[in-house]
Structure formats: structure tokens, C-alpha cells
Specification:
This protein is an alpha+beta fold and 178 residues long. It has eight helices and four strands; from the N terminus they run ααααααβαβββα. The chain has two domains: 99 residues, Peroxidase, domain 1, CATH 1.10.520; 72 residues, no CATH class. Helix 1 crosses helix 6. The termini are far apart. The model has no long low-confidence stretch (mean pLDDT 89). Keywords: ATP synthesis, Cell membrane, CF(1), Hydrogen ion transport, Ion transport, Membrane, Transport.
Length: 178
């Protein structure tokens, strides 16, 4: 991914600056908003990547969209515009969130289910994930009806697939091998 190393450096510098200013939590909220907005808006993402659109236009659009952001977040946008690296803003935001969570000892667990998690089930998943990792865990629920039932739990690099679709595929492989 082009700019990944630059995004990591900017995210680390931003976390350090925000921590010094006692604004790391507020900046984390801003970075989640920025990452989600860029991921969900193809137009915004394309504008940031476009070499044809002038930096001044990109800056005015970003400042208009994120006008309620922390001053540290706004200074990041300024710095990225100045250094002609505004195209990595979404990656910086995502990396910042990851670094912030690591600094707080929080691990992100992704749970893919066929239907939305109930509160009771989410508490059970949180408890199990905390037991496995020894860290505080935040759960992100992704709904994918193609798994039919069960769940797929991913924490960091570890994945546990207890989906009905996976079990059916295993049965299919066993029958075709015999």
C-alpha cells in the first residue's frame, strides 16, 4: 500500500502530540470519524487521491466537513496539505485508532454473524475474548448472511470460524475425498 509507512509515521507523531496536549481521546474520536467518512464516501476518497484537484480545494472541503474537530486534528490536515500527503489521511486516521487502542491496552475483536449480536451474546463474546487475550476488548459486529449461522471471531491475527457455512464446507470436503 503506497504511503503506508508515511501514514504510520504521521499517526505516531499525532498520537505523541495529542498525548502531550492531553487530547488523545478527543483526537481518537475525530480519527474514527475521518476514517469512517473517507471509507464510506467514494467521492471524498477520490478527491483526496486526485492529483488534478488543487490542495487549497481539498483543504477547504476537509475543513468544512470536519469543522467541529479538535485543533490537533485540524493541524494534522494542515500538515498533510503542506507536505502534499493529504492522500494518506484515511490511512493515518485508521493507524492512529489502532495505535491509540494499543496504548490503552484495548484489542479490537471482529465478530461476523448472520444476524446482529444481541446484548447478551455480545457480553459473552467480550468475556471470552478478554479471557483469550488478557486485554480489554471492543467488539465490532459485521453482518454477513452468507455464513448462514454461527459466527467468525477475529482478534488480531487469530481467527476462529464457527460458522455453519464453514462446517458445511468441511463436510463437503470430507465427502469428496472419500
Amino acid at each position: 500500500m503506497a504511503g503506508a509507512r508515511a501514514a504510520i509515521r504521521y499517526a505516531k507523531a499525532l498520537l505523541s502530540l495529542a498525548s502531550d496536549q492531553k487530547a488523545a481521546g478527543a483526537v481518537n474520536i475525530d480519527m474514527k470519524l475521518i476514517a469512517n467518512t473517507i471509507a464510506e464516501s467514494k467521492e471524498l476518497s477520490d478527491m483526496l487521491q486526485s492529483p488534478v484537484i488543487p490542495s487549497s480545494t481539498k483543504k477547504s472541503v476537509l475543513l468544512d466537513i470536519f469543522k467541529k474537530s479538535n485543533k490537533t486534528t485540524l493541524s494534522l490536515i494542515d500538515t498533510l496539505i503542506t507536505n502534499n500527503r493529504i492522500d494518506v489521511l484515511g490511512h493515518v486516521a485508521s493507524k492512529y485508532n489502532q495505535l491509540f487502542d494499543e496504548s490503552k491496552g484495548i484489542e479490537l475483536a471482529t465478530v461476523t454473524t448472520a444476524v446482529a449480536l444481541t446484548d447478551t451474546l455480545e457480553k459473552k463474546v467480550l468475556a471470552k475474548a478478554k479471557e483469550l487475550t488478557g486485554k480489554n476488548v471492543e467488539v465490532e459486529n459485521i453482518i454477513d448472511e452468507s455464513i448462514l449461522g454461527g459466527f467468525i471471531l477475529r482478534i488480531g491475527d487469530v481467527q476462529y470460524n464457527a460458522s455453519v457455512a464453514n462446517q458445511l464446507n468441511q463436510l463437503k470436503r470430507e465427502f469428496t475425498l472419500n
